[in-house]
């Protein structure tokens, strides 16, 4: 069982909770999205692992399932509970169930409007969109037993948003180059959510002066508005200035690492504290030797 604010998520017995599960799914898929009722229930339901979210009064507000073919599906949250973390909580439990089974990865078919939601939870898009039950979908995959290869800006945006989204209190960004990653809407949205959340947090940015003016205006404005959250330093030690790698890491054991920081290609490590610790130690060594960016006065920070 995963308790959260105002609701909880648990793995349930399909035979026992069948009505509650289908009640949520019918309200979302059939009533809202006009999916034919006969498609909402299928032969995989009795064979799948089901999760259910309930509010403080025990009313079902969200549902999802994990099928034997290693796919997450039937993710549904009632309209009045959307945007309150129910979907994230359902997905966390489903991914945890897949890990318990020793699966190397897990896939899903995301409705196109939900791609950013799954992307910030570590799922990368594969192939081209397709139609399912009359609705456009995208196949997405998350690896569970190692690093995910990041090869283009779309995947990089998803990787960065995931690390930011999963951060608890601390976020570290070691930047190189002017690839435009931080100007991507999913990345900026994740930074904004993290920085404005109601808890103590910090964002430490290591940025070379040559790259400073490439910071997107939206990020600069956010840092100006929240100077107690954002700290920016510039490497000055000759050895530190020669470091060519870049990374975004958090205090949850997640890291998007780029061996050549000016290039977008790299690896996304999720729930990998040992691997992330290596990057964190490098970051902190450079951070302690760095200085507050003098050019920030020009930017007004």
UniProtKB/TrEMBL annotation:
Entry-linked Pfam families: Acetyltransf_10, DUF7931
Residue span(s) of domain N-acetyltransferase: 9-145
Keyword Transferase attributed: yes
CDD domains reported for this sequence: NAT_SF (cd04301)
Keyword Transferase: yes
Domain of life: Bacteria
Ranges in a coiled coil: none
Key words of the record: Acyltransferase, Transferase
Protein name per the record: Acetyltransferase
């Amino acid at each position: 069982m995963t308790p959260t604010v105002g609701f909880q998520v648990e793995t349930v017995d399909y035979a026992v909770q069948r009505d509650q599960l289908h009640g949520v799914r019918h309200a979302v898929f059939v009533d809202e999205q006009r999916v034919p009722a006969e498609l909402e229930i299928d032969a995989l339901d009795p064979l799948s692992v089901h999760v259910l979210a309930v509010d403080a009064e025990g009313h079902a507000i969200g549902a999802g399932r994990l099928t034997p073919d290693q796919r997450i599906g039937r993710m549904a949250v009632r309209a009045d509970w959307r945007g309150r973390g129910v979907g994230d909580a359902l997905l966390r439990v489903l991914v945890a169930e897949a890990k318990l089974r020793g699966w190397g990865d897990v896939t899903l078919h995301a409705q196109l409007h939900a791609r950013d939601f799954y992307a910030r939870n570590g799922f990368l898009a594969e192939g081209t969109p397709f139609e399912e039950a009359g609705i456009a979908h995208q196949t997405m995959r998350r690896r569970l037993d190692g690093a995910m290869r990041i090869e283009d800006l779309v995947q990089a945006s998803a990787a960065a948003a995931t690390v930011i989204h999963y951060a608890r209190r601390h976020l570290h960004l070691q930047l190189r180059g002017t690839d435009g990653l931080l100007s991507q809407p999913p990345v900026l949205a994740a930074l904004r959510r993290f920085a404005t959340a109601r808890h103590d947090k910090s964002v430490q940015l290591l940025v070379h002066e040559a790259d400073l003016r490439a910071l997107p205006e939206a990020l600069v404005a956010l840092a100006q508005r929240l100077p107690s959250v954002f700290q920016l330093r510039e490497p000055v030690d000759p050895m530190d200035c020669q470091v060519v790698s870049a990374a975004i890491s958090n205090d949850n054991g997640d890291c998007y690492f780029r061996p050549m920081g000016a290039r977008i290609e790299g690896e996304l490590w999720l729930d990998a504290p040992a691997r992330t610790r290596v990057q964190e130690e490098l970051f902190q060594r450079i951070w302690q030797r760095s200085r507050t960016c003098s050019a920030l006065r020009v930017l007004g920070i």
